[in-house]
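User: Last request for today: this protein with adenosine-5'-diphosphate, please.
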Amino acid sequence: MLNVEGLVKRFGGFTAVNGVSFKVEPGEILGLIGPNGSGKSTIFNMLSGTLSPTAGSIRFEGREIAGVSPHSIINRGIGRTFQIPRPFRRLSIFENVALAGFYGQGSHSQSKAFAAAEQALALVGLPGDRHARVDGLGAAGLKKLELAKALATGPKLLLADESLSGLDEHEMDQAADMLDRIRKELGMTIIWVEHIMGVLMRIVDRVMVLDHGEKIAEGLPSAVAHDPRVVEVYLGT
Ligand code: ADP
Ligand code: MG
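Assistant: Here's the final one, the structure of the complex with adenosine-5'-diphosphate:
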């Protein structure tokens, strides 16, 4: 489904992502972990068109998407969440999600966007009531809203950026189970970024580890968790 080769991103003289290659098969959840600053969000920004790669190729369903605009990437079926939720606070929860649906559905149909919003809100367990306000949401609610916005764009591939950060342990377990359910119920393919291993390792099929912009390990969670380079990177974190 996704084939990334030799991906590089430089900011001036600083190399944030340094020649990363990986593949994602339809229906799988790939975990992408690495310490803060290791380049995870920068990779998501290139996959979702927010940033153009300095070098490398990103093929989605056989077509090159490196450097393509965020809007056409959403229309081709890649949806993402942002690590730091920034909802429109004056709009209701429903309106935030419907707006994402409107933007993401190529047809720009209001009825389709409303239907997508209703379905996405039900999936993440947020109220479908059209007037419920964003202000009442805590950290876990805001993460659910991020997820609902991405789902409302109708993605085939979902990029989830730190869906667990800022949550307590119980909320983390619930959020992890939710991603697992979304994958199973919708047959969705997911790349899930976290800086900690934690519950992610329970859900993902494969995991890839980044350090200083480079891939240092990849494989089954059980094997990667014991990889000496991974243990070293995660010592003391
Ligand atoms: P992660 O998501 O793994 O915590 P990021 O991908 O956000 O890491 O950042 C990787 C590195 O690139 C960090 O050192 C960060 O400061 C740097 N970086 C990210 N975005 C920019 C940017 N727009 N300009 C300059 N440096 C950036
Ligand atoms: Mg990040």
